[in-house]
Amino acid sequence: QTSYFKGDFDWAKAQLKVLKGATTQLIANDAVDLYLKIIDNEPVDSIPSGLKEFAKAELAFYQNKYEEAFQILKSLFTDKNILANGLIPGEVLYDDALFLEAKILIKQEKYLDAIEQLEKIVTADNQGFLTDDVYYLMAETYNFKLKNPEKAKEYYQKIIFEQPSSIYLVDARSKFRKIRGEILN
Questions:
Q1: Is the pLDDT of residue 36 over 70?
Q2: 129 vs 9, which has greater pLDDT?
Q3: How far apart are CA 127 and CA 33, in angstroms?
């Protein structure tokens, strides 16, 4: 991740290729996720993609510098020097930026604002690899932060029926049943 945060995407990809073959599934999954993020968002033919700025925002987030991370993300949507048209729906990085904004807002206990950002991803219908992450974060936020289990149940159900290969499937099913009042073994 260090190479990614520094913006050295070629070196990061080389390291991640090795890690993808790791025996620990968690490490391999993380490596694949980061590798895909890089190859999906790399600048092409010197046309900026915003990936360097996004990596800076992620680093600030991991350092608990939420306001700094949020400002960097906002610049992706508005600074014409980074992206000529700003970050718009349909671009791969759009979902990642909104998802990171939502995670920041949750850390800042701005739960309704976080839900609003997640709903933008769902509305853009470009979720790709993030679909189950978005649904799960929405379900968890509704369930545990906003204390709205009925709304949470809706998103757990989406994972169960629309994302059957999700890593969240077992947990979503268990929480869905608990909300419905079923007795769990």
A1: yes
A2: 9
A3: 14
Instruction: Identify the band that residue 26 occupies on the pLDDT scale cut at 50, 70 and 90.
Output: low
Please state, in angstroms and as integers, the Cα–Cα distance from residue 6 to each residue in 52, 54, 81, 83, 107, following that order. 8, 11, 20, 19, 24
pTM for the structure as a whole: 0.87
Q: How many angstroms separate the CA atoms of 68 and 47, rounded? A: 25
44 phi and psi, to 5 degrees?
Answer: -115, 130
Domains of the chain: 1-42 (no CATH), 45-126 (1.25.40), 127-185 (no CATH)
Listed residue (140, 164, 167) closest to 152, CA to CA: 140
Instruction: Give the pLDDT band (50/70/90) at residue 1.
Output: confident
Is the model more confident about 159 or about 124? 159
Sequence-distant (≥ 6) Cβ neighbours of residue 24 within 8 angstroms: none
Tell me the three-class secondary structure of the chain, residue by residue. CHHHHHCCHHHHHHHHHHHHCCCCHHHHHHHHHHHHHHHHHCCECCECCCHHHHHHHHHHHHCCCHHHHHHHHHHHHHCCCCCCCCCCCCCHHHHHHHHHHHHHHHHCCCHHHHHHHHHHHHHHCCCHHHHHHHHHHHHHHHHHHCCCHHHHHHHHHHHHHHCCCCCCHHHHHHHHHHHHCCCCC
